[in-house]
From TrEMBL:
Family: Belongs to the aldehyde dehydrogenase family.
Protein name: aldehyde dehydrogenase (NAD(+))
EC number(s) from the headed UniProt entry: 1.2.1.3
Taxonomic superkingdom: Eukaryota
PANTHER family, alphabetized: ALDEHYDE DEHYDROGENASE-RELATED
SUPFAM superfamilies: ALDH-like
Catalytic activity: an aldehyde + NAD(+) + H2O = a carboxylate + NADH + 2 H(+)
Chain ranges of the Aldehyde dehydrogenase domain: 23-471
Xref: PROSITE patterns: ALDEHYDE_DEHYDR_CYS (PS00070), ALDEHYDE_DEHYDR_GLU (PS00687)
Active-site residues (renumbered): 247
Organismal lineage: Eukaryota, Fungi, Dikarya, Ascomycota, Pezizomycotina
Any GO molecular function: aldehyde dehydrogenase (NAD+) activity
Keyword terms of this UniProt record: Oxidoreductase
Amino acid sequence: MGAEIDFTTFRNVINGELTSTEQTRHGINPATGNPNPEVPVSTPTDVDAAVEAGLVAFKSWSKTSRKVREQALLGFTGAITRYREQLTKLLVQEQGKPVMFANGEVDGALAFLRSIVNLKLEEEIVEDTEDRQVIVRFTPLGLAVGIVPWNAPLVIAVMKIAPAVLTGNTIIIKPSPFTPYCDLKLVEIAQQFFPPGVVQVLSGDDSLGPWLTAHPGPAKISFTGSSATGKKVMESASKTLKRVTLELGGNDPAIICADVDVDKVAPKIAMSSFANAGQICVAIKRIYVHESIYEKFREAIVRATAALKVGEGNEPGVFLGPVQNSMQFEKVKTFFADIEKEKWNVAIGAKGDMGKPGYFFEPTIIDKPPADSRIVVEEPFGPIVPLLTWNDEAAVIEAANNTKMGLGASVWSSDLEQARRIGDQIEAGIVWINKHFDACFEAPFGGHKESGIGYEGGLGGLKGFCNAQTININKNL
Ligand code: NAD
């Protein structure tokens, strides 16, 4: 495969080769409604070919040294850096996010890659006496499948490829049909550093995910997407007892205590609610403000939200792009329709039709909707968020935990003791204090309850792609 990557044609990568399919399809630029380039629609024959190649490649890749895998990942990192401009442009075009966030996503992928090569999953000697030595080691599982959603296609694919190959596995990436472009190019770039069959990608329609999860070849499914699909993936994987890691939906609460500097905190809450037009698994989706500062906080967050520009991702100063696809647009519209139906008070926003092409909404804050309303209970995954009030610590903790989700949460207070006291009682995989979103790649990233099973990040993330093996030696035969 040549060294120069062409960013205008898009093909699968099977066994180191760029391949096309008889049938093709295309995504839509969500900011303009224009069609993006054609991509393959993989068939069961393509799935069989990729699985076969992944299993064959596993035999030799799993025996390579850690050094070889690390070098390949570092080469991949360098190439992503070289192609960052093209990847960023493509990400804006396929996903709709503004340039600064597309840049941030590429940066996040690069930071993840640079950090993971420092993680060492080494053999552990858990007992060593005169009579016996007991060693725990971690061996690769085999061929993995990485199923990627449409909200952050580039960084999420990288977060699956890197731990899989570093631990000696091979992997097939399956992008969302809405956002296949960056993932196809990433894997094409990877061919310059990995032997054929180690990193592959298949683009397709809605049949492709179920074909891969049901196929007897793969040993592991690493899935990121909605909780509803995660349940289907687990059900399908259970037939062949594939390992699963499920990174699923969220309904993150932010608890704002009475002592915060309102003018400093409110803009941060607005940005953490409306970044990527609310389409982030760990976006703030419920804002609980102490009643003593409620009016002042509402004024400040309305001011901050009014300053957030909505538009096409390449327009200067745009903070919110469109919702990514027509299916999600229709779903988010139902929450906007509820405003009138349920007689919710609106603090700001409410416009569902921005009078321009593309799937745009105004960033919208609902003022004190009932605790059991859809906007509080469900994950809209769009730029609409409820502002709620509290006055009793135990009650706000109970409200924050009163959900099937448990991905992220944040507590905001200048009294760090109070913040920790509240944070420690929140049922969520990540609890931030006085911030939201900040990623630490050495620490677990995953959900409690219906937000997921297993986690990515840190040594535990590497272990998710491994079998544990105990070697128990009798020294005195
Ligand atoms: P989705 O569940 O609709 O799709 C995710 C992926 O699964 C896509 O590639 C899709 O083609 C594939 N898929 C769909 N049905 C399948 C099936 N039956 N078997 C196998 N694969 C199948 O999710 P989405 O709408 O793309 O993404 C939005 C959701 O993802 C939100 O709920 C969000 O919170 C969640 N998410 C979670 C994280 C996390 O790390 N926890 C990160 C990003 C997004």
